[in-house]
Structures are given as structure tokens and as C-alpha cells.
Automatic annotation (TrEMBL):
It comes from the Archaea. Keywords: Membrane, Transmembrane, Transmembrane helix. InterPro entries: DUF7847 (IPR057169). This is DUF7847 domain-containing protein. It holds the Pfam family DUF7847. The chain crosses the membrane at residues 101-120, 141-159, 165-184, 213-235, 241-263. Residues 16-263 form the DUF7847 domain.
């Protein structure tokens, strides 16, 4: 057992974070990167519209409930009605659909985002930067997207449960789990694994490289924080479009960065018994 509880013995060669960042930026600025950003931005705008519409629907139903059942002569009730009306009026782009339809739409778009990210992983892993080849994008895509969506849910559940159970440890165990599962999507997209196999494969790939992957996670956090701050400065329809575009850039860059690290670590671990042929 290693003397360091956070890491295990690994190969002497280390990841070059600077080179990973440079390659990820090149991927982002490529034709493929532009296609992925555009696709994610369009889906992001649609998701924001549906989410805003669902929120407005909830506020409208709440407003109706208050007016029908509460004593509207009370000052606090009047203030609540005023606040709800202002919130509804301040809403951005919305569509007039029922709550169940909006929920189904949001679910479908979430799966579509996963499919786009699967395609991005495959393209970046194969250094296809002049545009995403159709055959590469379409290969087992529905299955891979479904696997990816299920894996993401499992990952969030695992991190959430560990966070709740170990909050007194300053979430270090949750960070340990997050780092260990960072390459799950790449295992699904590139190695054609199912959710459980991908989780196991990612954990095995990260083993012995956790400090390097921690640096990668810090970069991802800082980039995400920066784009979130910029997006929070935008309001109204411009906020919907600009926020979706910034989110798409963030997701594309993050996918490229993690995939670059995955390719390098996989090349150092080709003798793993669970390793499947890459595309």
C-alpha cells in the first residue's frame, strides 16, 4: 500500500498539464470544436427556455392557488402576490406548454446533450479536428448516449451520498470519488463500455494518477467558475443566448481537456486487462 492515501504508485511519466491545456484550446478552436459548441449552444438555449417556462408555470399555479385560497386582504399575502407577479413578468423567453410536456422536453434535451458530448469525446480522442465524421458520430450513438446518461446519474448519486455521509471531512472523500470517475464518459464513448464497466475502468485508469487529475479538476473548476460569473452578468434574452453559448464553450473545452488526459493515460495503460480497443 502506498504511503500516500490519496495516490498509488504509478508510472514515472507524468501528465503535462500545460500541453493538455494547449491541446484542449486547439480542439476548442477547431472546426470540430465550433460544431460541438454550436450544437450545445442550440440545445442549451432550448433547455433554458423550457426550464424558464416550467418555472413560470409553477409560479402561475402558485399565484392561482394563493388567490383562490388565501386571504388577499392580508398585507403579507398581497406582498406574496406582488412578488410572484413580478417574477413572472421578469421571465425571459418562454413557451406555453404544460408542466409534464416541459419535463419530458427537458429530459430529452439532457439526453441529447449527453449524445453531443459522446460525439465530442470520440472526435477529440481521434484527433478529428476538421469536422466530426458522420460515421464516428453515429456509431452506436443512441446506446452510448443512454449509457452516458445513466452513468452521469450514478455518478451524481455517488458523489451526493458520499458528500452527505462525510461532510465533516470537508468533502475530501467526495472529491476522491469525483476524480476517480472523471473518465467515465470517455470509457463509454471510446471503449464502448456500459455504465458499470465504465465506472470501473475510469477508477482503474485514475489509480496512481490522482494528484495529476486533481490539478486537472482544479482547472475545470476555475474555467467553469469563470464562465458562470460571465453568464451571471447577462440578463433577459441576451442572458439566455449568451449564457447558453458560454456554457457550450465551457462544456466543449472541459470535454476536450478531459479527453486529452484520457488518451494519454490510456496510452500508458494499454496492458490493462479490462482495456477495450479504442475507435
Amino acid at each position: 500500500m502506498s504511503a500516500d492515501p490519496f495516490d498509488d504508485p504509478a508510472l514515472d511519466e507524468s501528465l503535462d498539464l500545460y500541453q493538455l491545456l494547449a491541446d484542449a484550446v486547439d480542439s476548442l478552436l477547431s472546426m470540430t470544436g465550433a460544431q460541438i459548441v454550436a450544437s450545445l449552444a442550440i440545445v442549451g438555449i432550448a433547455s433554458d427556455v423550457l426550464a424558464e417556462s416550467l418555472l413560470v408555470r409553477v409560479f402561475e399555479d402558485t399565484l392561482t392557488l394563493v388567490r383562490e385560497n388565501a386571504d388577499t386582504s392580508q398585507p403579507e399575502v398581497q406582498q406574496l402576490i406582488t412578488d410572484l407577479e413580478r417574477t413572472i413578468e421578469a421571465a425571459g423567453l418562454t413557451v406555453d406548454l404544460s408542466a409534464p410536456v416541459l419535463l419530458v422536453g427537458l429530459l430529452a434535451l439532457a439526453i441529447l446533450v449527453e449524445a453531443i458530448r459522446i460525439v465530442a469525446v470520440r472526435a477529440f480522442a481521434n484527433d478529428e479536428l476538421d469536422g466530426v465524421p458522420r460515421a464516428l458520430a453515429a456509431r452506436r450513438l443512441p446506446i452510448a448516449a443512454a449509457y452516458g446518461f445513466v452513468a452521469v446519474i450514478l455518478i451524481y448519486l455517488a458523489i451526493g451520498i458520499v458528500s452527505v455521509l462525510t461532510f465533516f471531512l470537508l468533502f475530501v472523500p467526495a472529491l476522491f470519488v469525483y476524480i476517480g470517475l472523471l473518465f467515465v464518459r470517455q470509457e463509454i464513448a471510446v471503449a464502448d463500455k456500459g455504465p458499470i464497466q465504465a465506472i470501473s475502468g475510469s477508477w482503474g485508469l485514475v489509480k496512481g494518477n490522482r494528484w495529476e487529475i486533481l490539478g486537472l479538476a482544479v482547472v475545470l473548476f476555475l474555467v467553469t467558475l469563470g464562465t458562470w460569473v460571465l453568464a451571471s452578468l447577462l440578463v433577459g434574452p441576451a442572458g439566455t443566448v449568451g449564457g447558453a453559448l458560454l456554457g457550450a464553450v465551457n462544456l466543449t473545452f472541459g470535454t476536450a481537456l478531459v479527453t486529452e488526459a484520457y488518451v494519454r493515460l490510456s496510452a500508458r495503460s494499454d496492458d490493462r486487462p479490462d482495456r477495450q480497443p479504442s475507435i
